[in-house]
Amino acid sequence: MTAPQAMRPVGPARAQLRLLQTTDLHMHLLPYNYYSDCAAEAFGLAHAAGLISQLRAEVPNAMLFDCGDYLQGNPLGDYLALERGLDRGAPHAAIAAMNALGYDAATLGNHDFNYGLEFLLTALGGAEFPVLAANAAQRLGADGPLSDTLLLPGSAVLDRKLVCDDGVPRDIRIGVLGLTPPQITIWDHKHLSGRIETRDIVETAAAWVPHLRAAGADLVLVLAHTGIGAPDHVPGQEHAALPLSRVAGIDALMLGHSHLVFPAGAVPKLPGIDASAGRLHGIPSVMAGAFGSHLGLIDLVLDHCEGRWRVCSATARAAPVFRKNPDNSVTPLTLPHPAVLAAAAADHQATLGYIRRPVGRSAVPMHSYFALLSHDPVGKLVAEAQRWHVAEALAGTEHAALPLLSATAPFKTGGRGGPTHFTDVPAGDVALRGIADFYEYPNTIRAVRVNGAELCEWLERSAGIFNRLVPDAQDQILLDPEFPGYNFDVIDGLEFKIDLAQPSRYGTDGALLAPKARRIRDLRFGGAPLDPGAQFVVATNNYRASGGGRFPGLGPDRVVLEGIEANRDILQRFVARQGTLAPRQRASWRFCPMPGTSALFETGPGSARCLPEIEGLRLEPLGIGGDGFSRYRIRF
Fold first, then answer.
1. How far from each other are the two terminal CA atoms of the chain, in whole angstroms?
2. What are the pLDDT digits (tens) for 121-174?
3. What share of the chain is helix, strand, coil (3-state, %, to 5)?
4. Cα angle vertex 135, ends 219, 192, to 5°?
5. Has residue 3 got a pLDDT over 70?
6. Which of 74, 121, 560, 590 shows a CA-CA span of 20 to 30 A to 264?
7. Residue 11: per-residue pLDDT
8. How far apart are CA 232 and CA 61, in angstroms?
9. How many C-alpha atoms does 556 have within 13 Å on its Cβ side?
10. 311 - beta bridge partners?
11. Average pLDDT rounded to a whole number, residues 506-513
């Protein structure tokens, strides 16, 4: 029997659809820092979920998506994959939390493959939402992306009802496409070789978007674990958001991978980017930072007429989950969501036991209070661990016969992080939580091939952290506050001096400022002057090897080892292998003498109990200033 005409939804009508996004959670489910073993309010899905609830309540129609990298990233993820496993039938903690929050769909990030395919598929088996990856195939088909045999579904058409402004719910079909970095087969070669093949992101989208339209999708949303990079398409592009946004038929784009926030001001000024409106080539686009720091939010206003939906307008923004305070602390904008807390509670408690197990011992205190004055026991330890791993990885290759050096930078040196932002691990047992004090960032191992002249430029760039000192002048400020400590690389295996009477050759941004200036003096390898033409391999991390910090002579073309192992994990294994740590104390560099000259240096208040003897320097304590830093006068 046909329903009366008055009971049928008729148009035109208008509806608002809110699309919410998380990305790059990296197992930060709870407000807890497993490395420092204490509560931390600066991240976590639990607080983000509170904001999700608020934003959902503001509109009648809302959907929630994730753009990948949720299964790996901290000791909770390591515990579930490497210790407990997923054989007890309970869902993975991240998947349980996402189920509880009612995610509509997700895609995969590259780190979701880090523990292998079996673990990945077991974890995803508990998902109550579709997980999509259109460019990760068990076998590539001869007739293009639509003929591939995929690991997971490439797309989904979600049937939903939108409540319109007249109060009548109307059917809508939302096509969702998932894309992951094609580099997963390189980065997780040991897990994926012979089992997974990948396609280019843009090539895949160009085939699947019209397919979704043909399948009846009224809207097409793309979930892509890719960042905003070069504007022109290059096959196999890692950061492919700009060319992806030019694929016809996409209504909204959700991004990830690079841990940045979009829309925001800190994005490249490239054609097609509207950072204020959140548009890439006119397509509303968002990227929600990392670790639950933000939510991506796209509001679509849709007109419905004669059975068809049309996007009338769109706004895009990134909503912060936390407020940063003047003292660099953060305040959550919402209370943690009880469903997320409950989903991770049991595994959280088990992880605490896991991280508190000693992995080794240290015979000396390990700290970074004087790392910028050449006393850096942590840097020595990291350098040794990197060299050990790279030597094993390059064994039997053409690069194995070259001298192997190791570049490290001190990550925790105060500055804008405040007077407590220093490594400080006492002598005695070293637990997993202490490893993060040694290595703060989630970098992965790399090795590059350079010559002696390029090594000298590398060190000149690092030496820019110091201000130029006027000979015979007193109490000059030693450090440039705009130069981050993580760009002060020391290359272990070389010996050299730094002449602070000379101007810096490079600026804080890496630009060449003074072509005739030379601060690096008496640069030696093996006790002899360094040969500018000699070839070397240097162990480092992915940030530096890929050009991070704009160090001259570095970039992807110099990489001879692109490992998937995290430097922090390598360090943990090295500590366990050594048993008792006793890093070499002899400094590889020092300042050139400047008699009659003094400078002022600030470090953490814990430095008073760790005051070292540093060759060529005399340190005079001046007390603690109003900002909490300990001040020292240095005489050269």
1. 97
2. 999 999 999 999 999 999 999 999 999 999 999 999 999 999 999 999 999 999
3. 25, 30, 45
4. 150
5. no
6. 74
7. 54
8. 36
9. 1
10. 302
11. 93
Q: Is 575 exposed, middle or buried (0-12, 13-18, 19+ CB in 10 A)?
A: buried
Of 377, 289, 287, 304, nearest in space to 584 by CA:
377
3-class DSSP assignment, residue 303: strand
Instruction: Tell me which residue of 386, 412, 588, 407 sits closest to 485, measured CA to CA.
Output: 412
- Choice between 543 and 254, residue whose per-residue pLDDT is larger: 254
Q: Is the pLDDT assigned to residue 104 strictly greater than 90?
A: yes
The SS3 call for residue 53 is helix
What one-character DSSP code corresponds to residue 502? S
Cα–Cα separations (whole angstroms), residue 69 to 23, 216, 348, 409, 519: 7, 30, 19, 26, 42
* Pairing mode of beta strands 13-22, 62-66: parallel
- 3's tokens: 């329903």
Dig out the tokens for 334 from the structure: 């919402």
283-288/252-255 β-pairing: parallel
The pLDDT of residue 602: 97
Q: Where are the beta strands (DSSP E) in 417-505?
A: 424-425, 428-431, 444-451, 476-477, 490-492, 494-498
Q: Report cis status (omega within 30 of 0) of the bond before 503.
A: no
Supply 604's token pair: 């953490």
pTM of the model: 0.74
For residue 9, pLDDT over 60 is answered with no
Cα separations (Å) of 107 from 64, 100, 112, 157, 174?
12, 18, 10, 14, 15
Interatomic CA distance for residues 455 and 558, integer angstroms: 13
Phi-psi region of 512 (alpha: psi -120 to 50; beta: other; left: phi over 0): beta
pLDDT in tens, 264-290: 866 778 899 999 999 999 999 999 999
Average pLDDT over residues 199-206: 98
Query: Which has the closest alpha carbon to 206: 233, 188, 186?
Result: 233
Annotate 503-517 with b (16+ C-beta within 10 A) or e (fewer): ebbbbbebeeeeeeb
Buried b (16+ CB within 10 A) or exposed e, 256-277: bbbbbbbbeeebeeeebbebee
Answer whether 378's CB lies under 8 Å from 368's CB. yes
* Nearest CA-CA partner of 221 in 131, 283, 293: 283
